[in-house]
Amino acid sequence: MNRKRKINILPLLMILLLFLCSCKKNMHMETFEVRNEGVSLNEDIRKQISGNSSESEQNTQNNESKYKPLNYDEQKAIWFSYIDLAEFISGKSKSEFKASISAALENVSKAGFNTVYIHVRAFEDAFYKSELFPKTSYLGTHTYDPLRIIISKAHKLNLSVHAWINPFRCSNVETIESIDEKYTIKKWYNDIEKNGTYINSVDDDEHMWLNPAYEDVRQLVADGAVEIVNNYKVDGIHFDDYFYPTTDKSFDKSAFEASGEENLSEWRIENINKMVKLVYESIKQINQEVVFGISPQGNIENDYQLQFADVKTWCSKDGYVDYITPQVYYGYSSTCPYLETIKRWDKIKTNKNVNLVIGLAEYKVISEDEYINNKGIIAEQIKDAKELSNYSGVALYNYKNLFTAEDKFSERVEAEYASIIKELSD
Prior knowledge:
- Helix content is 48%, strand content 13%.
- The protein is of the alpha/beta class.
- The strands form two sheets. It has an eight-stranded parallel barrel with strand order 1-2-3-7-8-9-10-11, surrounded by six helices. A three-stranded antiparallel β-sheet has the order 4-6-5.
């Protein structure tokens, strides 16, 4: 009788064991599907599903945000403006774009550069896949992703890629009116309370401009940087010198009056500082090693009086930028002399955590007498920059003028190119 009971129980045990294994298997599959669907989970649910290990939590992060950026102690950079990119993209298929941009990046690498500033948003139009900003019109009906192609090729050449953004400059009215209603800029344009406050027109300028006085505007700028860092393996985010578009009091009159502040210049400077600090902190929350840099005007007085850019604070305090690239686009005999100017920048750069990269006007070798008549002037400026106590590199503006000069300028540019690559290699 006891033997008979054992025989009956064994099949039941086998069935129970199979059932438990099946439940465990299904639970594992469900966890995998939840992660792949990108469902946002609160911390308690996340721990229930994946356990309380840091490794499990890291596996839920975006691959790009975990990317280890490629950056150099000495930047040897070159700007690729939207004008450069437009020539590679306009009317071109994906394969045609890949061929032309690959050749351009190979040119840069062979010349001795190690960093490229890629103009990914010049007029709040994206040269990448974005949910926040409309696709650049230069792509036409094409749907490929220029930035992803650039990053892939650049990294194979060990080139650091910094996504270059104009934070506040928008397209003209005609273009804005044509974009999809889902974009924030279009919503602000259509809103009778925000058109004229959040987004403004400026006399003698066809472009609309975002107003940094408003928290929502500053947040959109930060969100735009975060979107890029989240979705692309960029090594840096780069802003240039377009902050306030005018000194006219009417541009932000209502916001200034509502602020209760008394000094317009100081208030504007603080607005820009808030934006810069927010962008810096937002980027670092995603990836601490992605660098943030700004290329203000080389003339420090202009930065304060025209752009309301507090470059002395950025160069001296933590939490604003990782590097500063002043556009020292002046000759030695300029009214703002080159040597004197770079020494001033060297002096105000007192924070050891901020790198100083000198921006140079390579394009002037075909447009300004001092540059035209002095072969090797850019190489000489690079050499002088290296003598600064805080030197961390140079950046040249821009790709087109150095690598695709018109025939009538080719001899002059080739002479300059030879001296530049020699100096970069030293």
